[in-house]
Amino acid sequence: MEKIFVTGVNGLLGTNLSVDLLENGYVVKGFLRDKSKFQGQNHPNLELIEGNLFDDLTPILKGVDTVIHIAAETSQNITNYMDYWKINCNLTNQILTSSIQCKVKTFVFVSTANTLGYGTINDLGTEIKEIKSPFKFSFYAKSKLDAENDLLKKKDNIKLIIINPTFMLGPFDTKPSSGKIIFMGWKKKIIFFPPGGKNFVYVKDVSKGIISSLHNGKSGEKYLIANENLSFKDFFKKLNHLENQNSLMIKIPRKILIGIGYLGDILRLCKIKTNISSINMKILCIDNFYDNKKSILELKLKYTSVDYAIKDAIKYFNNKQIK
Length: 323
Fold this sequence. Notes:
It is built from eleven helices and 13 strands. The chain is of the alpha/beta class. The strands form three sheets. The chain has a seven-stranded parallel sheet with strand order 3-2-1-4-5-6-10, with helices on both faces. Strands 7, 9, 11 and 13 form a four-stranded mixed sheet that branches. It has a two-stranded parallel sheet with strand order 8-12. It starts with a strand and ends with a helix. Pfam families: Epimerase.
C-alpha cells in the first residue's frame, strides 16, 4: 500500500483528504500540532504525528511514497509579507528538499486559484493565465505564487504537482474557515452582499482531484479544481432557496466597501491587525471566475453541485452545533 504524508491534516481540506485516502486504501501519516483537534475517524492505516513542520522531517519521510503539503498561513490580518513567506514559501521549500532527500516519489503542493489569472463569466481564468490585480498585491497569494515558482525549479528531481483549488465548502470546517460565508446568510433576515463573485467547489471534489493527480497528473503541471462561478448575490439566493429562507438581500455599493478597506489600511499602518484592507475589499468587488476543463480532461474529475456542498456543510455545522 502506498504511504502518504499529509500536512495540515486537521483542516477543512486535510481532514476530508485523509478520510478519502483511507477509503481508497492508502496508508496515511497525518502531521498536525495537536492530535486532540483532529476531527476525522480513527483508522488502522492512519498515523497522526504531532510536531512542528520546521523540525527535521527526514525520519518521518523515510519510506513515504507521496507528500501532500496543505498546511499554510492563511490569516488575512497579517501586515508583514515575510510572515507569509516563511510559512508558505520557505517552509514549503524545506519540505520539498527533505522529500527529495528521502526519495519520495511525488510531491503535491496545494496552493490557491488566486495565483492564477481570474476571468469573467465569458472569459474564465485558466492555469496559463498570470496573476493580476488585486491578487498580485495580496501577501497571501504572492507567497503562494513565490512557492509555486520555487518548487517548479526542482520539478526534474521529483514528480511535482500543483493543485489550485477555488473557494471550498463542505464538512469538517470546524473553525469555520471558508464556511463563514454560509453564516453570513444562514438564518439571517437581512443579507448584505458585495458586488463581485467567486468560483465555489465542494471540498470532496478537491480531495478527489488530489488523489487522482497522484496517478493521472503530469509533473510540473498546475490543476485548477473549480466548479461553479457565482456572483455573491446568486450564492445567497441559492442559500435562501436551499434553506427555505426569505431573507431581504441588500447589495453593498463598491465605493462603500473600498472606503472601508482604506480605513483598514490605516489601522494596519498603525500595526493593528485586521482582516479589512483595500485589497481584500477590492477582491470582493470582482468576478473571480475560473475554468475547470483541464481537471475534467486530465484528472477525470466529475464535479458535485455547489447545492450539495452547501447542504453538506450546513449538515456538519448542525451536527457539531457550530454557530
